[in-house]
Amino acid sequence: MAEHLLEVRDLSVRFHTARGVVNAVNGISWHLDRGETLAILGESGSGKSVSASAIMNLIDCPPGEITSGQILFEGRDLLTLGGEARREINGRRIAMIFQDPLSHLNPVYPVGWQIAEAGMAHGESRHDAYARTLELMRRVGIPEPDAAMKKYPHQFSGGQRQRLMIAMALVLKPDILIADEPTTALDVTVQAEVLSLLEELQEETGMGLLLITHDLGVVAEAADRAVVMQGGRIVETGTPRELYHNAQHPYTRKLLAAAPGKGAMRQADERPAPILQVRGLTKSYGAFTALKCADFDLRAGETLAVVGESGSGKSTVARLILRLEEASGGEALWKGEDLLKKSHRQMAPLRRQLQMVFQDPTQSLAPHMSVFEIISEAWAIHRDILPKARWRARVTELLEQVGLQPEHADRYPHQFSGGQRQRIAIARALALEPELIICDEAVSALDVSIQAQVIDLLGRLRDELGIAFIFIAHDLPVVRDFADRVLVMQKGEIVEQGPVTEIFERPRELYTQRLLAAGLDADPDVQAGRRAARLALAG
Amino acid sequence: MLWADKFAFAAALFLMLMLLFAIFGPALLDGVASKQNLRARNAAPFTVERGFLYLLGGDALGRPLLARIIVAAQNTLTIAAGAVAASMVIGSTLGLIAGYAGKTTGEVIMRLADVIMSFPSLLLAVIVLYMLEPSIGNLVLVLAITRIPIYLRTTRAEVLEVRERMFVQAAQVMGASTSRIIFRHILPVILPTLLTIATLDFAFVMLAESALSFLGIGIQPPEVTWGLMVSQGRQYLTNAWWLAFWPGLMIILTTMSLNLLSGWMRVALNPTQRWRLELGGKRNG
Q1: Within a domain: A450
Q2: Which SUPFAM superfamilies does this one have (chain B) (predicted)?
């Protein structure tokens, strides 16, 4: 049998927690060869990161315990090596990059020093380490590397920080690079760039790349082989193409089915007069303009998607309309009345018609209130909706409507999973019987299959209750399935708006085309086409 | 749930006992506690030949220490609880206003706090008590004023952080009134912090009161507090340690009990932490 660069054999890890023993991974085996990209695909809690942590000796024991298995690196079992030998391999031979580069860069040191430090810690001379840092920063595409060496992490954008992390990982020319969700926190266009950078670097150095991700698109774009994990076990292994076209395991099929962007697009039909008219909406912070003269209409029962990258001002639109921040100019006419000119007292009764669902349900639900209290608060604020005697019954009804159990009413938010929490947040919004719900990245933080369920739920509510939605997202496939009309934003300006079919099939603006090409599709063949389009646009 | 935390349970029992002392002690033992008996001057503890009231020994005038400690519980706890409660209520209310209201109001309140803090608290107390009659009421007032900034600044800092949290914004979107947001959403989050500070402050106030009593502007004999007993016993430390030791021990135990109880309360009031108690003290691994 040919020897693999890295091989994990029958690895089991469990954690002792206050609630008993949790088996994080159960007898998993996989291998990685030189010059190969292996993706570990799974949703949160599937144990996809645990094997990487075991390789890097990052599992705290206790509470963790490696109960069985071997991790063979060039034939040596890492688990039986001593601490000194492990440190020699970590960093020098096997390097790792993480999801959130900002929290892994030290804010008080210049980045050049931090990258060179990795070299110096492993015995390079100061001069060599700095020379190599400069070369690497140029290689990963940081503009003006000489000046950039002396800058601090906060002076870089998210994508640049991830490039810096990659440079830091490559200082010692590792044989294996482990990337744990390297692009999850990045915008689509930046994500595509970082993935191609990783690929180029791999071709140059011939290192093995272990890519841990939850995103089928990332697998289709970058992986040579993929293992699919669920509940601590590997359910399926294969090339992305095999997995996509010929998935054997029901879980893989479920994941693929949940991937958004395949259903029929909604046809925008002629609808009644607009309920919300936004004209010249502007917001500036000092000299910086976050939103420039936004104009758009929303008709009753319509779903308007607002897409754009971070910093494009899409959340600002929502916050201004709901008066969470004061606009610098323009007007927002809700049924003919300007929301921006209302006093806070006049605004209060209108608020029940306009609701919002936030991105992160963990933060948007008060941790000290039970679900019943959270949902019924709506009626405590607006006393005319429902008499107190009927609160309990209505909460039960709402919970059932969003797919939860009546007995969940007396639990607290932390006792639910992310998807369930978002359902609670939706139930809270529905309690006021609103006519418009603004979803600010409401499904971005959720796993693919949960995301599909929440989108289904929102779609059902739209059809049953005739609620209009403003759906803010950076994820284009989700928008494609759900929206009637799309509004594309860039740097505080609306660059293009139109019916969903038009935006997705005949985008006029270059930026929209770039955005569409940068989005990752779960189908490797479609993805290959996108990639070609992306290169054409870039060239 | 209190039973799940044995230390907190013991602390609650101890505090209950102190409360009983404070309520019934003076009525039952006042005569005994102030009756001088020169033959029992600085009587050693742990003998019952003079009766069990002398179990902890006698003071410089031969009064039984145990009886005096029980009687002193009333004044001590009234002053400490009164001062802590008053400073916490006033301080956190001002802090909530400073944190949530506009910039100007906040600035004015913070500068007031700075004024109080820049003035040595003991000096302030001396001046006020010199001008006013030294009484329990005035003592509470003075101690409360000097401790207000602690709560004010903590509350304001916490409010500034909590008001930016998502669930507060969610409440705003629902149209919740300002008072609703403050009392229903912000206060429950910062209350555990305030209670923890309050229990620590309890000890500080007891000792500050004894310092004032020592200077002769606090509680006036024959009234007695634990702090006063400590300062009176100080000069006998070398030959009769028990004079200062027992009341000092009471101060420590009371503070410690409050602290344990507040620790338990912080866990019990927090839905995300409550399972630690429901687990029943069992541990894994």
Answers
A1: yes
A2: MetI-like
Q: How far apart are CA A205 and CA B54, in angstroms?
A: 86
Is the confidence at residue B189, as pLDDT, over 80? yes
Of B173, B272, B275, the CB nearest to A355: B173
B175: left (phi over 0), alpha (psi -120 to 50) or beta: left
Q: Which residue of B has its CA nearest to A64?
A: B285
Mean pLDDT of B218-227: 80
The pLDDT assigned to B94 comes to: 92
Architecture of the B2-278 domain: Orthogonal Bundle (1.10)
d(CA B261, CA B267): 10
Q: Give the one of A16, A322, A367 whose C-beta lies nearest to B284's C-beta.
A: A16
Give the residue extent of every domain in chain B. 2-278
Interface contacts A/B by beta carbons within 8 Å: 80
pTM recorded for the entire structure: 0.78
Cβ–Cβ contact B180 with A under 8 A: yes
**A69-81 residue pLDDT tens:** 888 888 888 888 8
Parent domain of A200: 35-49+93-258
Torsion angle, alpha carbons of B150, B153, B155, B160, to 10: -170
Q: What is the ipTM of this complex?
A: 0.75
For the domain that residue A141 is a member of, what is the CATH number? 3.40.50.300
Read off the pLDDT of residues A504-517 as tens digits, 9 standing for 90 and up. Answer: 888 888 888 888 88
Q: Is B167 on the interface with A (CB under 8 A)?
A: yes
Q: Does B50 touch chain A (CB under 8 A)?
A: no
First to last CA, chain B: 23
Candidate from B172, B185, B276 with C-beta closest to A366: B185
Question: Over the stretch B127-136, which tens digit does the pLDDT of each residue have?
Answer: 887 888 778 8
Residue type, B10: A
Q: What is the mean pLDDT of residues A301-320?
A: 86
| Residues B258 and B199: beta-carbon distance below 8 Å | yes
Q: Kindly state whether A322 is in contact with chain B, defined as any CB-CB distance less than 8 angstroms.
A: yes
B279 touches chain A (CB under 8 A): yes
Q: Does A487 reside within a domain?
A: yes
Residues 6 or more apart whose CB falls under 8 angstroms from that of B135 comprise none
Phi and psi, residue A183, nearest 5°: -120, 5
Residue of B nearest to A346 (CA): B175
